[in-house]
Amino acid sequence: MNEPSAKRPRVLVSRPLPTDPAVRGSRSLFLSQAAQQGVRADRRMLYVGPEPAGRDVAECLRIAPGDEVIVRRKLMLANDVPVRIATSYFRADLFAGTRIAEPGFVLPTLQAALEALGHHFGRAEEVLVARRPTLFEAETLDLDPGEWVVQVVRTGYGTDDTPVHTLETICAADRHVFPIRQVTGNDEF
């Protein structure tokens, strides 16, 4: 791992895979995970609004590339250090004109808002990829030259198998550890 830049303190946060359902249903996945780790956490909304879907997001949401999606982009900080960019993508045909598309954080929780709109969780898929950051990611996360990111993409499907929510989390690789547990809770070699 790279040594941390002199301009920011060293911070290492955990991003468990798969996501613990009890934590996912909390007010904030990141705030809950950070509190469990004894890290002072904060989050800032960067953008809420429409965007054209990129190829990967379109594939996850089963729409055409370029179709409009509702985007909710946040910056997560641990001990005042930027560690993650979390972007939620929602199909505009399902969520335009709802509180999912409104500015600010969805209260009391995003999960409650989705359920109030008739979407009940069925299953999810999480994919993890390590890669070089985009310019936006490097600047937003205050990355040093040569630092990489880990991209975690989680798509949640309703009980009818409709893709409801794609969450792309861009993690500063040198500021994260990714503990992995089996869903059943029984670890095997």
From TrEMBL:
Domain UbiC transcription regulator-associated: 36-177
GO molecular function: DNA binding
Pfam families (alphabetical): UTRA (PF07702)
GO biological process, one term: negative regulation of DNA-templated transcription
Superkingdom to which the source organism belongs: Bacteria
Protein name, UniProt field: UbiC transcription regulator-associated domain-containing protein
